[in-house]
Amino acid sequence: MKMLKLILVAPLCFAASVVSGVTFGCKQACLELSNFDVSRSTGNTALSSLWSNFQAEVEPECRLVPRHNRDVAEILRVIRKFNCHFAVLGGGTSPFKGASNADAGITIDMQSLRDLDVVDGENAHVVVGAGNLWAHVYAALAPFNMSATGTRNSLTGVIGSILGGGILFFSEAHGWACDTVIEFELVLANSSVILANEHQNPEIFWALRGGGNNFGIVTRVSIEAFKNPPTWYTFQRFSPDHMDLVFNRLEAHTNSMPNDVCQIAVTFQWHVPTDQFVVSERMVAYELPELPEILWRKDSQGKLEPVSVLQTVSYQRSILAMAEKMDQMNPHGFFNLFGSLTVYNDSDLFTMLARVFMAEIEHIKTIEGLQVYIVYNPLTSKALSHMQKRGGNALGLESRDGPLTIININLHWSKQNDNDQMYVFMRNLIKGLRSTAVQKGLLHPYLFQNHAFEEENLFDGYGVVNVGRLRTLQKILDPDRVFQALQPGGFKLWADQVDDAQWDKSEL
Ligand SMILES: *[C@@H]1O[C@H](CO)[C@@H](O)[C@H](O)[C@H]1NC(C)=O
Ligand SMILES: *[C@@H]1O[C@H](CO)[C@@H](O)[C@H](O)[C@H]1NC(C)=O
Ligand SMILES: *[C@@H]1O[C@H](CO)[C@@H](O)[C@H](O)[C@H]1NC(C)=O
């Protein structure tokens, strides 16, 4: 594979230069497209409303609601003609400013592309239009006692989560959302509508499974469906004094997940209402799993001492009910930041990372409307093995990388005045977590796109070979850089290092 040398001649920030230069173009483009459903409303542009204030406070020049993939192609044609920047709105739950709502540009609101066809039988699958949220997919599959691999929140858009990866309660058995895709329909930069599957445009099919919004506008996907009876969800709370015992369990489960357990995760939270740290373990299983009433700690003489569990709750629910419950934990109307890193499975490291988190929290405890927690998500060797399905995905992870743990940081607050401080907090927290993992030699370079901090060089973590392959494809499909320059929201393949000298079309 031929790799480009990334020599930085002159830094060039596309997003900024484009935004200031094309406002006039966007007015013209909106005028030319005025036969579409056009709305100038701010904030309330999504199906419910945009989740994060960072997105909700953005005002597009116009919002367009395509009713067919042909409409998307036509909008893209006009966008190119007038060089107007844009964003594609699905669920709108990315906290990134501009990811799904274009500041003074065109927001393409997919909400009318709502087809949803369930195909039952041996190769059960569901065909999903790009305007659907996972809530719609789960609800459509429920009468068949089936589900599909989406996300743990119901209000997330289907396409955005698939393009980034997508983790669900059932990823151990079925893989990540991107690994369950059978086919994409998408509109390319030149407005051609194509299909990508294992046999037709397989390179595009590979790239879309993890490559983000760098290749086209996806208008429809087919994804696998599976039998999914009501499931047990358990919650156990422990004192943070005993987090090492909880993390020992997590390490053991990550290395060898009990057969009947679908998923396990540990949350470490600064609980604002009670002014304390809380550590909790969640399990998902079809049969009610055995839950310990006590854990055992060895004292200095090697004698076992009992440690009690503070709280145990278990309930049987449908996936939709559970995802809606998760939504309540992440309400809209706040400023949000995400962060993520990936580490090898090691309980001492998990404890050290929790201590870094505890120390950093000291700086922000008094912030108004604060909610902050980290979630340790095992990525077992079995879950990783699904990543080879249908030619594999673009994420650059293999079974032999595992088992891994993806640590996601969730942060929200109320006041715009605190934004700068919260960015500083997030940068310091990620830096502290990362350097701790590096010291132990247990940092993995992969970053989970759906939850990564917006300042990361995300694609570096996919590995040199995969980034080269993604960039080569990007140049072939989109030589004029429509999805790099005109769609600034989200992780871009050429984020930092683009300059015109390097953009040599003769490479193609
Ligand atoms: C779904 O499951 C319920 C309860 O187990 C059962 O009564 C119903 O017949 C099932 N429906 C289908 C379509 O399999
Ligand atoms: C955690 O994973 C590593 C491989 O990365 C493995 O060597 C180790 O044994 C695992 N820990 C446990 C407790 O099994
Ligand atoms: C659009 O781009 C694709 C991918 O580069 C190419 O195969 C196709 O021929 C182009 N279509 C038109 C109408 O130019």
TrEMBL record:
Keywords: FAD, Flavoprotein, Oxidoreductase, Signal. Residues 1-20 form the signal peptide. Residues 56-228 form the FAD-binding PCMH-type domain. GO terms for molecular function: FAD binding; oxidoreductase activity. InterPro entries: FAD-bd_PCMH (IPR016166), FAD-bd_PCMH-like_sf (IPR036318), FAD-bd_PCMH_sub2 (IPR016169), FAD-linked_Oxidoreductase (IPR050416), Oxid_FAD_bind_N (IPR006094). Gene3D superfamilies: 3.30.465.10. Belongs to the oxygen-dependent FAD-linked oxidoreductase family. This is FAD-binding PCMH-type domain-containing protein. The lineage of its organism: Eukaryota, Fungi, Dikarya, Ascomycota, Pezizomycotina.
